[in-house]
Amino acid sequence: MPPPAPPRDTLLPAILGPDLPEAACTGRWELFDPPHAGEPPDDLDYRRHRARTICQRCPALTACELTADDFAAQRGSHGFVLAGRTVAGKHW
Ligand code: SF4
Fold first, then answer.
1. How much is the pTM?
2. What is the C-alpha to C-alpha distance for residues 42 and 55, in angstroms, rounded to an integer?
3. Which residues have C-beta within 8 Å of that of residue 19, sequence separation ≥ 6?
4. Distance CA 53, CA 18 (A)
């Protein structure tokens, strides 16, 4: 039996929480996560593309952008997709 998969840094539930119940990313958190250890660059690019595509159609995009701006200004974590953008650090 293989060892259990390591926990992933699923940030979106913590960021969005119950504030955006119409969020299109609900249940798709893995697409938005920062790079996974050992993840091939092509896989990461594909995953981020899929995440950004979901954001473009999300009814909560405007509200999410406001949340994202606050979050990006406060948090050092980066590499995840939020509001259709990849967070590169404390700033977009
Ligand atoms: S804009 Fe993207 S990250 Fe924000 S709630 Fe919608 S799907 Fe999720």
1. 0.77
2. 20
3. 63, 67
4. 22
* Short-list 91, 86, 84, 4, CA closest to 44: 86
CA distances (Å), origin 73, targets 15, 40, 49, 66, 81? 13, 28, 23, 11, 15
Of 51, 49, 1, 48, residue with least CA distance to 24: 51
User: Given the CA of residue 67, which atom of ligand 1 is nearest to it?
Assistant: 4
Mutate which of 12, 20, 50, 64 for ligand 1? The one with the most ligand atoms within 8 Å of its CB, which is 64
φ, ψ of residue 33 in degrees (nearest 5): -65, 160
Q: Is 24 in the pocket of ligand 1 (CB under 6 A)?
A: yes
Whether the CB of 16 sits within 6 Å of ligand 1: yes
Q: Which amino acid is at 24?
A: A
Which residue shows structure tokens 């958190």?
29
Q: Over the stretch 28-52, which tens digit does the pLDDT of each residue have? A: 988 988 888 999 999 999 999 999 9
